Amino acid sequence: xxxxxxxxxxxxxxxxxxxxxxxxxxxxxxxxxxxxxxxxxxxxxxxxxxxxxxxxxxxxxxxxxxxxxxxxxxxxxxxxxxxxxxxxxxxxxxxxxxxxxxxxxxxxxxxxxxxxxxxxxxxxxxxxxxxxxxxxxxxxxxxxxxxxxxxxxxxxxxxxxxxxxxxxxxxxxxxxxxxxxxxxxxxxxxxxxxxxxxxxxxxxxxxxxxxxxxxxxxxxxxxxxxxxxxxxxxxxxxxxxxxxxxxxxxxxxxxxxxxxxxxxxxxxxxxxxxxxxxxxx
Length: 281
Prior knowledge:
Elements: H1 8-11, H2 14-21, E1 33-37, H3 41-46, E2 53-58, E3 66-73, E4 78-84, E5 88-94, H4 99-114, H5 119-125, E6 137-141, E7 144-148, H6 155-167, E8 174-179, H7 188-201, E9 206-210, H8 214-224, E10 228-232, H9 235-245, E11 251-255, H10 263-280
Parallel strand pairs: 1-2, 2-3, 7-11, 8-9, 8-11, 9-10
Antiparallel strand pairs: 3-4, 4-5, 6-7
Helix pairs in contact: 6-7, 7-8, 9-10
């Protein structure tokens, strides 16, 4: 996990979020091992006053116990090497894209090996991972790479989604379909504006936005250089736009907070495409 800002509206600060998440240690035995994100500065700082053993995993912090190296993104998967100070190095693959998913894989590997499971088998088992629900599920829809990632959204996961799309080696357009991020409190305006700027910097070709707060995202994306940044008032309009715009070789990601129900747009898009194919037969 990371100490982000998803619950800032309720807890007030990242430091309070850290305290809340570390409450899990109160139920751990003294000889337990806490596996923590070595790339998170707050967690690494807290490690100094924890009374239990820790094991760290990371991508950027090369001093962590377990580090991912030589990360290579494929159309529907990511390959990397696990460098483990305790057990050695192992090749690994996960059937999804994005550094955040590599971090999740490292967390699982670190936890499993620290409770005694075979490290080689743990590394190999990562390839059998299946995304649950709408958590960055990859779908090959008639040659269009669709990433269904709308279970929930925060500034951190929105950034991860944008960069996952950007990293894909597809030949066509990269299209981001984004909805409001909720429960952000005072940082909501800034977070939505930043998402648009980040999409532009990441080279996203088309940005489609839905929700009141996402108007800010569309505006900031236009100012940052995305000429095709559009805000929609209805999900039906978004589905129609996607059906007319996307073609074989394109890639699209859907991301929004759970309450936005962005899956309505996905289902509408799929239905329209199937209707069109039926008409052409």
